[in-house]
Amino acid sequence: MSYNQISLEIDAPMALITINRPERHNAISLETLAELQDAVKAIEQKDAVRVLTITGAGGRAFASGSDLNEVKDRDFKKALEPIVQGLADQLERLSKPTIAAIDGICMGGGLEVALGCDLRIATPRSRFATPEGKLGIIPGGGATARLPRIVGRGWGMEMLLMGDPIDAERALTIGLITRIVAHDQLLDEARRMAAHIAKFAPFVPHTMKMMVNFGMEASTAAAQMLEKYAQGALVQTDDAKEGIKAFLDKREPQFKGS
């Protein structure tokens, strides 16, 4: 499929989706959203891709939010559709780890896309906010659910109720992002991270994602039991046997995904 508002590049082990509306600070329209969902679906089918990175074009914004020209005409029925929530859910369910590579503005619906990713890295000039309250609405892409789970209830409420931007240093301190990278090194860092993850047996990152995502919805006891069952399944794989043997032999493992 050809895209109008995003681009998709595959350079295994990483796939890169770029939101490409720099003239609108990469605001997410319904067309953008449909293209993002299609691209993520396509990436799921590509075994050579081990990590998906999402970024924004132009150097001024990851994504400034949902396109307000469409939001202003949204009725109650449309507001109940998944829209950005659906994309964030899709990213969480993707079997491959995801990285949001953020440079510049990351607010509203754009932040909610980033919250759906497993890892978030940013540049010093990045800014983060959930400003919907200032517009007389609340977030509709999952921020009220995901943000407090990621940064804790206190900072989640601070960002949601105040709506003011925080800088990259504050975002790092509260755990919203995990790395600050010079803007000209952002995608190189994402590629380094993807190459590192690609060294693991293919089952491992996928299983890690499931354990965290399902485990956070369960009791500690249930999450730990789920973890043991998952470990019990993986320890029987050829890759697990190879990984342990390679460690004991002091050599690099040769994983085959079996």
Distinctive features:
alpha/beta; 6-stranded mixed sheet; 46% helix
Description:
- The chain is built from 12 helices and 10 strands.
- The chain has 258 residues and is α/β, with parallel strands linked by helices.
- A 6-stranded mixed sheet has the order 1-2-3-5-7-10. A 4-stranded mixed sheet has the order 4-6-8-9.
- The model has no long low-confidence stretch (mean pLDDT 92).
Query: How many E strands?
Result: 10
Unreliable sequence segments? none
Please state how the strands of the largest beta sheet are arranged side by side: 1-2-3-5-7-10
Going by helix content, strand content and strand pairing, the class is: alpha/beta
State the helical fraction. Answer: 40-55%
Oligomeric state, counting identical vs distinct chains: single chain
The radius of gyration is: 19 Å
N-end to C-end Cα span: 31 Å
| N to C succession of SSEs | EEHEEHHHEEHEEHHEHEHHHH
Query: How would the global form be characterised?
Result: globular
Q: Work out the helix count.
A: 12
Instruction: Bin the strand percentage.
Output: 15-25%
Instruction: Give a quick account of the main beta sheet: strands, pairing sense, barrel closure.
Output: 6 strands, mixed
Mean pLDDT across all amino acids: 92
Topology:
Layout: E1 6-11, E2 14-19, H1 30-44, E3 51-56, E4 61-63, H2 68-71, H3 76-79, H4 84-93, E5 98-102, E6 105-107, H5 109-115, E7 119-122, E8 127-129, H6 143-151, H7 153-162, E9 166-167, H8 168-174, E10 179-180, H9 186-198, H10 203-215, H11 220-234, H12 238-249
Parallel strand pairs: 2-3, 3-5, 4-6, 5-7, 6-8, 7-10
Antiparallel strand pairs: 1-2, 8-9
